């Protein structure tokens, strides 16, 4: 057993870290307050090849290996969870379309999605369909060689600006996936404001009012929309979110190590108090444990092991809770300062709750992991 | 060769069908154990274990309903591609 990053992976991590330190972390608090990631930083993601990074090169993607992609996601998530969520949703959809889209659809689109030239978002949740994804009410009707989509979606990350949406709809009561361009007549979107976490992720409600699509926009076969197309997307999403959660936990640790070294109470730095040391130790150990689970999931993804999905569930389950725990302690260790916008830890706490809910809540993971246990290590 | 393939599929599925001796012609969907996660895991397993890719137009529950059907899918895919499994 060898658990070590390659030189190339270490160098890539340094590049990602430098990018985040220069272009992301200093501005993330402002983006959070403004509820908007600026378009120029998305352009920078694109120009660095960070959108579509895990897609194969022949699909216009970056051909990044699973571990390096994890490192990228961790570093972006360490700086700004809202920006990380763009990587997550775009890559989920581009990956699922590349996997299950028909040749005609991919011929015209794969390179644009793989390169991030066109942005994608996942349109799954509805006002009354969250964890129970199979209960979506958005409807698709076949009319000749076309499909007509009608319904509403809610909580759509980067829904305000995405160019394409992977939509789950019922076609003759079969759960079916469609790729809907935002230019389709009948499509409209309404920004959502006042979200507690990942506030800059340009969330929107979507309306599909008789959106008429050519048959090539069907992704996978009717009836396989949730079980295969969306499951493919969600599997990558869980992997991405797990690494993003590690990023939050690491950011909390960074902030706390600095704060407790400088802040003095009772005549000594905070870090010299044993109860503070206990919290720091928990944060250090849980962050490392979460990262190791992500490495394990990434390794299995890289070698194409069928256990990868189950290990990814485990990683997401643990890492998202580790992020919440670290962020909760981080706010606590910062005392009154932790409750202000002068320090980033309150944002980390708000963002950490999001990663515990999206791509399968902690409770859904508990059910799923018990039913699909990974094999022996 | 077919028996070997069926045994490999059965071994994979057995983790999810504990305390049930799965027969080659038994409908795995009717048994109620298959959720969306396992359905995709099964696709990933068949692709990784036997070295082929299932295309979007091959998504048909019949292909995955029984071990026999899965074996037939493998036979079609690998003989078309000239892959020995």
Topology of this protein?
The complex is a heterodimer of chains A (377) and B (85).
Chain A: H1 7-34, H2 39-47, H3 66-79, H4 81-100, H5 103-115, E1 120-123, E2 139-143, E3 146-156, E4 164-171, E5 174-181, E6 187-191, E7 204-214, E8 218-219, H6 225-262, E9 264-265, E10 268-269, H7 274-302, H8 308-333, H9 345-357, H10 362-371
Parallel strand pairs in A: 1-4, 2-4
Antiparallel strand pairs in A: 2-3, 3-7, 4-5, 5-8, 6-7, 9-10
Chain B: H1 2-14, H2 36-50, H3 61-64, H4 67-81
The major pleated sheet of chain A works out as:
8 strands, mixed
% residues in beta strands of chain B: under 5%
Number of strands of chain B: 0
Q: What kind of sheet is the major sheet of chain B?
A: none
CATH class of chain B: Mainly Alpha
Structural class of chain B: mainly alpha
Q: Give unreliable regions of chain B as ranges.
A: none
Q: How far apart, in Å, are the first and last alpha carbons of chain A? A: 11 Å
Distance between the termini of chain B: 7 Å
Helical content class of chain B: 55-70%
Can you count the beta strands of chain A? 10
CATH top level label of the largest domain in chain A: Mainly Alpha
H/E element sequence of chain B: HHHH
What can you see in these coordinates?
- The complex is a heterodimer of chains A (377) and B (85).
- Chain A is of the alpha+beta class and 377 residues long.
- Chain A contains ten helices and ten strands.
- Chain A is globular.
- The N and C termini of chain A lie close together (11 Å).
- The mean pLDDT of chain A is 96.
- With 85 residues, chain B is mainly α.
- Chain B has a single domain, classed as Non-ribosomal Peptide Synthetase Peptidyl Carrier Protein, Chain A (Orthogonal Bundle).
- Chain B contains four helices and no strands.
- In chain B, helix 1 crosses helix 4.
- The radius of gyration of chain B is 12 Å and the shape is globular.
- The mean pLDDT of chain B is 87.
- The chains are: A alpha+beta (377), B mainly alpha (85).
